[in-house]
Amino acid sequence: MITYVLDSNIVIKLWNQKPEFFKLMKENKNFKYIIPKNIAEEIAVKERCRYKGTYILSQRFLDLISYIEDYKGIDIEDFINKNNIKVCENNKAYYFNDNKLSKNDLILISLANSNKKYIIVTEDKRILKASREILGYKKAITLEEFITIEGNIL
To answer: What is the 3-state secondary structure (H, E, C) of 94-148?
Structure first.
């Protein structure tokens, strides 16, 4: 079974454009999606709201918790070395064929690399380009391509 690895921009677009998506996904057993822990942390920062003076996470974020996957066991340094990724700016920027990537971007790509059934879904052009060059064209898709492939769900 294919597992779609969602980038933060995809989660936010789906919330805004197709709010029923995540509910439908709970009911569908034909495929799976995950949100890497580091991506969930990015989203959590944007999904905090104040309630009675205390910051809490939004309900739509809380609904995703069971889909968050830790990436323990993935050797980022090995991935960087094997793919000739340049490390710059005190380990805060990474370059692959002139594509500037963050550590979160690399974790996303290396997670997809760790499992042949994982496919990245992103709208980030740098992640998309680097993923396709490193992993192969079919291992990274856009939201439009995702909707075309899995349109019966949406």
So the answer is: EEECCEEECHHHHHHHHHHHHCCCEEEECCCHHHHHHHHHHHCHHHEECHHHHHH
0.70 exceeded by pTM: yes
Q: Please count the residues of the chain.
A: 154
Helix 103-114 / helix 125-135 crossing angle, nearest 10 deg: 40
For 46-96, the pLDDT digits (tens) are 888 888 888 888 888 988 888 998 877 788 888 888 998 888 867 778 889
Bridge-based pairing state of the strands 68-69 and 54-57: unpaired
End-to-end CA distance of the chain: 18
